[in-house]
């Protein structure tokens, strides 16, 4: 019995589509029509004051490559606020069946990358890992983790995603491992981990399974001695109370025992507001559902010109457009071919030329671009995501 997964081959063949695109193609082919069009992918027609981070462009390029079309895009890792993020020009039937998959690639990844950037900006000096792959279908784990890295997170936990992305997954132990040794045997669990796992793996002891977090943290410090790098506090929300106070108690107790070298790693249902509160006492964080459970952005693909003539459905702006980053960090939408705002930098860049990929995807470079652009537009300043 197979998993209910649409294969990469099916997506690439244009069969991961909505039925009406199949029927559109059948109708146009039967009528002998295949107009040359300009189509744009947008979330909002005009700037709204709320920036979002573009991601998923690599998958979009893989989907569209090899077809006789030209594609331009805002570079992945760039923040946008209204107007097109991607533009396609060419015979409509060359990409009609790909619209569903194209929007899915961009919508889901961009939403998760935006959330990851919010988290990054909330704790810019902390180590932050993505723990969210468990909340989504496993077939998109690499999409989750790549989006997290684009948003600036330091690493992730999913092993298969690491194999795809060429990065090593991180993480140490779950509660299940400690429980497997039995109540009262936490020391044996931590020691067994230390004995079995590669020396390159940090010794981070999970310290809230059976007893008080302070108690288990001190016991872990005593059991592992100088080998202990950090304690992880993952107390369930129903028993947590004031999480900041718990972490401060743990810090106080460790320091009192002379273990200022032991760091504190916090996890469990955390988001940006939590990180702002806890970043003064915790050294690192694991963030899960806040990133992976992000609602996909509402991108749409609309034809805005046919055979060079501007056109559009009601409520959409006809004609080819350009988007700019203004010197004050703003986002500006204008008609293509006309003078842009003073000092504005046009953002759309070639992605495909006649179906051939002309852009590169350096994950570290994309994440750096996101960080720089976030600073430029004031994303996440004082908990805000607007310029």
Structure explained in plain terms:
The chain has 387 residues and is of the alpha/beta class. It folds into two domains: 194 residues, nicotinate phosphoribosyltransferase (Alpha-Beta Barrel), CATH 3.20.140.10; 122 residues, Aldolase class I (TIM Barrel). The protein is built from 14 helices and 18 strands. The strands form four sheets. Strands 13-12-1-5-3-17-18 form a seven-stranded antiparallel β-sheet, covered by helices on one side. It has a six-stranded parallel β-sheet with strand order 7-6-11-10-9-8. The chain has a three-stranded antiparallel β-sheet with strand order 15-14-16, with no helix packed on it. Helix 9 links the parallel strand 8 and strand 9. The protein is elongated and about 75 Å long. It starts with 7 loop residues before the first helix and ends in a 10-residue tail after the last helix. The model has no long low-confidence stretch (mean pLDDT 95).
Please render the helix and strand layout as text.
Layout: H1 8-12, H2 19-31, E1 36-42, E2 52-53, H3 57-64, E3 70-73, E4 79-80, E5 84-91, H4 99-122, E6 127-130, H5 141-150, E7 155-156, H6 159-165, H7 175-180, H8 186-196, E8 204-206, H9 213-224, E9 230-233, H10 237-240, H11 243-256, E10 263-267, H12 272-278, E11 284-287, H13 289-292, E12 300-306, E13 309-310, E14 321-325, E15 331-335, E16 345-346, E17 349-353, E18 356-357, H14 363-377
Parallel strand pairs: 6-7, 6-11, 8-9, 9-10, 10-11
Antiparallel strand pairs: 1-5, 1-12, 2-4, 3-5, 3-17, 12-13, 14-15, 14-16, 17-18
Helix pairs in contact: 3-4, 4-5, 4-12, 5-6, 8-9, 9-11
């Amino acid at each position: 019995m197979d998993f209910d997964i649409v294969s990469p081959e099916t997506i690439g063949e244009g069969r991961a589509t909505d039925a009406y695109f199949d029927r559109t193609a059948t109708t146009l082919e039967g009528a002998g029509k295949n107009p040359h069009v300009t189509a744009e992918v947008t979330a909002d027609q005009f700037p709204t004051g709320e920036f979002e981070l573009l991601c998923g462009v690599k998958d979009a390029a893989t989907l569209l490559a090899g077809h006789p079309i030209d594609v331009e895009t805002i570079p992945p890792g760039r923040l946008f606020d209204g107007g097109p993020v991607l533009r396609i020009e060419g015979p409509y039937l060359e990409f009609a069946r790909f619209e569903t998959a194209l929007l899915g690639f961009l919508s889901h990844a961009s939403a998760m990358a935006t959330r990851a950037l919010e988290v990054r900006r909330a704790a810019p000096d902390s180590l932050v890992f993505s723990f969210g792959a468990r909340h989504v279908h496993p077939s998109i784990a690499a999409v989750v983790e790549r989006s997290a890295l684009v948003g600036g997170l330091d690493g992730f936990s999913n092993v298969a995603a690491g194999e795809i992305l060429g990065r090593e997954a991180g993480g140490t132990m779950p509660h299940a491992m400690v429980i497997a040794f039995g109540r009262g045997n936490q020391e044996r669990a931590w020691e067994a981990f230390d004995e079995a796992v590669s020396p390159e793996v940090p010794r981070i002891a999970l310290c809230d399974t059976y007893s008080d977090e302070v108690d288990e943290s001190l016991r872990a410090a005593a059991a592992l001695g100088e080998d202990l790098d950090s304690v992880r506090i993952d107390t369930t929300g129903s028993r947590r109370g004031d999480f900041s106070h718990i972490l401060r108690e743990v810090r106080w107790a460790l320091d009192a025992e002379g273990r200022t070298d032991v760091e504190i790693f916090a996890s469990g249902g955390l988001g940006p507001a939590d990180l702002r509160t806890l970043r003064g006492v915790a050294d690192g964080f694991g963030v899960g559902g806040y990133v992976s459970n992000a609602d996909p952005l509402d991108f749409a693909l609309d034809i805005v010109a046919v055979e060079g003539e501007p056109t559009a459905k009601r409520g959409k702006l006809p004609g080819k457009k350009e988007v700019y980053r203004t010197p004050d960090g703003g986002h500006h939408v204008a008609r293509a071919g006309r003078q842009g705002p003073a000092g504005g930098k046009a953002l759309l860049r070639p992605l495909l030329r006649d179906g051939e990929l002309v852009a590169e995807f350096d994950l570290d470079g994309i994440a750096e671009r996101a960080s720089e652009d976030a600073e430029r537009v004031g994303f996440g300043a004082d908990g805000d995501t607007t310029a």
